[in-house]
Specification:
Blueprint lengths: L6 H16 L9 H5 L1 H21 L8 H8 L3 H12 L3 H7 L6 H28 L2 H12 L7 H10 L5 H13 L8
Helix pairs in contact: 1-7, 3-4, 3-7, 3-10, 5-7, 7-8, 8-10
């Protein structure tokens, strides 16, 4: 009798392993200590945002990325978030709070800072994932099949059907394809 693992935790562990290998953080296995480093934490947050963005771009859902949940789950340091917000925005604190409308609470400031960090890392993440999966087509297929698995077809047949566009309208694939190849698109913000 094996241990039952909740599906969302199994998916999260798989994505963390992929992220670790794609970024070459550890060739054998991903240890929690690797992600306790702030750069690793930033990439985990970016992966979370990026996957939510793909959901929105694919039309399967909307982008429900919640920075405060990510902050409470993975715990980037306040110092790191503050430093990165200052580095990325290059404006003084008062102007920053006014421009990003985050002067009301510390949580708003942290959420805005995390969004700046993830926005900066999207391109690096996309490149690492594309390289890990062997190119944009394979990355697209991995994301697409994770959302719409067609378990009644062998994987190579399902992939061929998708690529040949016999069963899927091209218009349904434009936004998610653009998202995967560019790293973000307007439909990912919906």
């Amino acid at each position: 009798m094996g241990v039952q693992v909740e599906p969302e935790y199994a998916k999260a562990e798989t994505w963390l392993t992929i992220l670790g290998h794609a970024l070459d953080l550890d060739a054998e296995a991903i240890e929690c200590e690797v992600f306790q480093q702030q750069r690793g934490t930033a990439f985990v947050a970016t992966l979370c945002e990026w996957l939510h963005g793909f959901e929105a771009a694919s039309g399967n859902s909307y982008n429900d990325f919640d920075p405060s949940s990510v902050i409470s789950s993975i715990g980037p340091s306040d110092f790191f978030l503050g430093f990165e917000a200052a580095r990325l925005s290059r404006i003084n604190f008062d102007v920053f709070c006014e421009e990003y409308e985050c002067a009301d609470t510390f949580d708003q400031l942290s959420n805005t800072s995390l969004k700046l960090v993830t926005k900066e890392l999207r391109s690096d993440l996309r490149e690492a994932l594309s390289s890990f999966f062997g190119g944009d087509s394979q990355l697209f297929w991995s994301l697409y099949s994770a959302i719409w698995p067609k378990l009644d077809l062998p994987m190579d047949k399902a992939f061929a059907d998708l690529v040949s566009l016999r069963f899927v309208e091209y218009s349904e694939l434009v936004s998610p394809w653009y998202f995967v190849t560019e790293g973000w698109c307007d439909s990912a913000d919906d």
